[in-house]
From TrEMBL:
Protein name: Transporter
Superkingdom of origin organism: Eukaryota
Keyword line: Membrane, Transmembrane, Transmembrane helix, Transport
Transmembrane feature ranges: 25-52, 64-84, 96-118
UniProt KW Membrane keyword: yes
Organism, as annotated: Colletotrichum spaethianum
Main localization, broad class: membrane
PANTHER family in the cross-refs: MAJOR FACILITATOR SUPERFAMILY (MFS) PROFILE DOMAIN-CONTAINING PROTEIN (PTHR43791:SF62), PERMEASE-RELATED (PTHR43791)
One Pfam family cited in the UniProt record for this chain: MFS_1
Location in or out of the cell: Membrane
Membrane topology: Multi-pass membrane protein
A molecular-function term among this protein's GO annotations: transmembrane transporter activity
Length: 207
């Protein structure tokens, strides 16, 4: 996250199309490297939830996580509009540059706090009491006890393909991805309408 934050903030300093492409390339690169080393954001967030909540409790928490993404998408355009309206040309820096500086700085701050506050395991969580840590560990242990692999991997794949819930989850995921990708093209759509460009930040989010 620190690497992502630094590159995102550095985007404010680009002076050419080539510089912008380079920043976007390395932004994707650090995400890919994060995935390789097992530390991408969403899998990491889901892992943290899974070590504290049982299987029956996870669905609600994961839905809240994804809801947070949707809500942030809806609010980010308003934040961008406020940034352009109040900070444009302040210190000789354009509004769009301030936007990248703010988002990069905020991400870095969250990453630093997360490094010190987020636990690796319930048993070493500093903001829980000793009894609460024992309870957290015991809850997860009881929730996973007795889980044994049955059959081969191919058998598991066949069972998953026959389960209607698998296809329901596939549909939900594709709808979610489609909704998120819509934001990439929304500024172009707005420009085809009789809406002034000054309104764009209010209707879209920063990419």
């Amino acid at each position: 996250m620190i690497g992502w934050a630094a590159i995102s903030a550095a985007t404010a300093g680009v002076k050419s199309y080539g510089g912008l492409v380079a920043c976007r390339f390395f932004l994707g690169f650090v995400e890919a490297v994060g995935c390789y080393f097992g530390s991408p954001f969403y899998p990491g967030a889901l892992y943290l939830l899974s070590i504290f909540y049982t299987r029956k409790e996870l669905a609600t928490r994961i839905s809240l996580l994804y809801t947070g993404q949707v809500v942030s998408t809806g609010c980010s355009g308003l934040i961008a509009a406020a940034t352009f309206a109040t900070l444009d040309k302040v210190k000789g820096i354009a509004g769009w540059q301030w936007l990248f500086i703010i988002e990069g700085s905020a991400t870095a701050l969250v990453a630093i706090f997360g490094f010190f506050l987020l636990p690796d395991d319930p048993s070493v969580t500093r903001w829980l009491t000793e009894d609460e840590r024992k309870l957290a560990v015991d809850r997860i242990r009881r929730d996973t006890v007795g889980q044994q692999e049955r059959g081969s991997t191919l058998d598991g794949l066949k069972q998953a393909c026959k389960d209607p819930k698998t296809w329901l989850f596939c549909l939900m995921q594709n709808l979610h991805i489609s909704a998120c990708s819509f934001n990439n093209f929304f500024p172009t759509i707005v420009r085809t309408m009789s809406v002034g460009l000054i309104c764009d930040p209010d209707l879209t989010r920063n990419q």
